[in-house]
Amino acid sequence: MAETGKYSAEQIEAMSNKLNENAGTMGVSLYPCSVPGHGKMFDMPNDMMEVGLGIHGEPGCRREAIESADKIVNTIMTKLQEVVKFTKEEPIVLLINNLGGVSQIEMGIIRSEVVKWCRQHSIQIARLLCGTYMTSLDGHGISLTALKVFDKEILDFLDAPTSAPGWHGADKLGRPETAPSSDKGQSIEVQTSSKGITLTKGRFLEQAELAKKCVLAVCDKMNAMESELNALDGAAGDGDCGSTFAHAAKAINERMKTLELNSAQQLLFNISEVFEQEVGGTGGAVGIL
């Protein structure tokens, strides 16, 4: 604001106060930071995480058993929604901050879970920032900050160019995506022929069971090819390709037992989710794509 020369000191102060009133931050860490020459700031059991810790390494409000990324994000976002009081009608700015010791892969997982949580709760993310903005030295944790967009000028300020080396630009995600409804024809149709099962354009709901059969047929083939794929992979790699895809096939089979299909998007999303959660290595990353 000051850089533009359009605002008085009083206006900048008023905006700063309003930003504080409409924002909230909460952090989680698996272990505390280490102060050079003094070691870790406090002891932390290996199976616990600190919830609500301060940016300077202050202990949090409680300790809990280590949870998965989706549960950690749910804990933080639920609390932020309670404090900041953002709703479906109000877009928010989200900042995912690396406290210093979190890898890029882990940050990517947290980012994915945050976006997923917002979409599940129909929360619009106007801007998403993810990276190392303010660390707690080498603290292995993250902090999430949510800000209600009470004034559209906030987005202009966030999007303004800067030469600050530590500032990573914000992503514009817009409104949460929703799965296409069955009456809009955004789907595929599965047909059988003498050559097997093929996919053609048409209504998906009418052919949901055949779509499942198609997926399960691929899973059966992956199971049957486990040894052969392992042998091929062993000639040039670590020999686990077949086992990886066989594991994926079993997980997809289990998902198909309870999945009620209502769109092609839902089917593909569930398959990619299985690969993301159940399959390791390169196969997991390829499956997500």
Automatic annotation (TrEMBL):
This is Triokinase/FMN cyclase. Keywords: ATP-binding, Cobalt, Copper, Kinase, Metal-binding, Nucleotide-binding, Transferase. Belongs to the dihydroxyacetone kinase (DAK) family. Residues 1-167 form the DhaK domain. Residues 209-289 form the DhaL domain. One of its GO terms (cellular component) is cytosol. Residues 179-189 have a biased composition (Polar residues). Homodimer. Interacts with IFIH1 (via the CARD domains), the interaction is inhibited by viral infection. Pfam families: Dak1, Dak2. Residues 167-189 are annotated as: Disordered. Transmembrane segments: none annotated. Gene3D superfamilies: 1.25.40.340, Dihydroxyacetone kinase, domain 2. The keyword Ion transport does not apply. GO terms for molecular function: ATP binding; FAD-AMP lyase (cyclizing) activity; glycerone kinase activity; metal ion binding; triokinase activity. One of its GO terms (biological process) is glycerol catabolic process. Catalyzes both the phosphorylation of dihydroxyacetone and of glyceraldehyde, and the splitting of ribonucleoside diphosphate-X compounds among which FAD is the best substrate. Represses IFIH1-mediated cellular antiviral response. Its EC number is 2.7.1.28, 2.7.1.29, 4.6.1.15. PROSITE patterns: COPPER_BLUE, DHAK, DHAL. It comes from the Eukaryota.
